[in-house]
């Protein structure tokens, strides 16, 4: 079992490394192709994108992973039961987005240019949902190779579109280019699905009874997915309201809309991506942790050992990288984004950001223990405190630093609450 865990982690880590490297290349090209206006528009859309994808995925990748890890159902039974329900929910969500897009762009984000990028998210939702379900199947089987390979092909697809298609769209307008880049996600997710199918079991025998929707399977999967998605949704709702509240508060105290868009773009498009660069490793570790803990949830000493191993490794990686960022942040910004904007934000966050890398293992263990409700509760409390503190601190005329300080507070609160819950369960 130990070898499976290590092997799965290594495969995901290597695949994620290649994906991350391709992601950096894409980000470098994107920032140079799309320009400052495009970056600012893309940054203000991303919270909405993340929220809608979280809603339509319904936490199914984690739920399917947990159910498959327990070995009680065939994969085909899960797909036949879950995919139709998920797609119906996607259709309903798309209809709501189409109706609400003008209000969101004009009244909440205060940016009419955001309308078409928001509409373009609708094309991505179904593909992301289906690929997420298939991904959960392979994670549950602890077969990480399909995910590693499909992620690389996904990024290659993005790179191709960015180099050959986006410049054509940019001739029309920045709005077309940003919308086209978002639609790229639908194409890349489709490529992922095709790659996953190549790894499907050979000579699979499928009976008509296997294709029927089983209510018991639906209930079991959704009993895990709903608490899981609730936790993720809370985080994404917080992320969604972040630019809305920040924009309105800063406009209220006298900052210009141009300043807010520019500084939020720097924070969201430059600073946070740099600080989360090592996440390819920690995500691989956290992803393999969920099915591993699900299998051995009764063995407290085993779970405790895996938890502390993951915490130690994640914190060490985060600390080493954040020290490097603190001293060489300006170099990274120049090399990756060809700018020095945001270096002061990087230095402030780098002092506290190693703590961010403790969040993943704690949440993954809680999910593996079927304690997603506890993670949801801590995320909810952190979200409320973050938005309130951001609103209050921003009133003191500190610009974007209200958001930066509230981000640090949020990380600390979530870590403390999740650790206390695991301590009550005697896993710490």
SSE run:
HHHHHHHHHHHHHHH
Mean pLDDT: 87
What's the number of extended β-strand segments? 0
Structural category: mainly alpha
* Tally of individual helices: 15
Largest sheet: none
Strand proportion: under 5%
* Count of structural domains: 1
Range of helix content: over 70%
Oligomer: single chain
Give the end-to-end Cα distance, rounded to a whole number of Å.
22 Å
* Shape descriptor: globular
Q: Could you tell me the radius of gyration in angstroms?
A: 21 Å
Uncertain segments are none
Architecture overview:
The chain is 84% helix and 0% strand. It is built from 15 helices and no strands. The longest helix has 56 residues. The model has no long low-confidence stretch (mean pLDDT 87).
Notable characteristics:
single chain; 428 residues; mainly alpha; 15 helices
Concise overview:
With 428 residues, this protein is mainly α. The relative contact order is 0.12.
Helix and strand topology:
Blueprint: H1 2-57, H2 60-70, H3 75-108, H4 115-140, H5 145-164, H6 166-170, H7 174-198, H8 215-252, H9 257-275, H10 279-295, H11 300-337, H12 343-352, H13 356-368, H14 372-394, H15 401-424
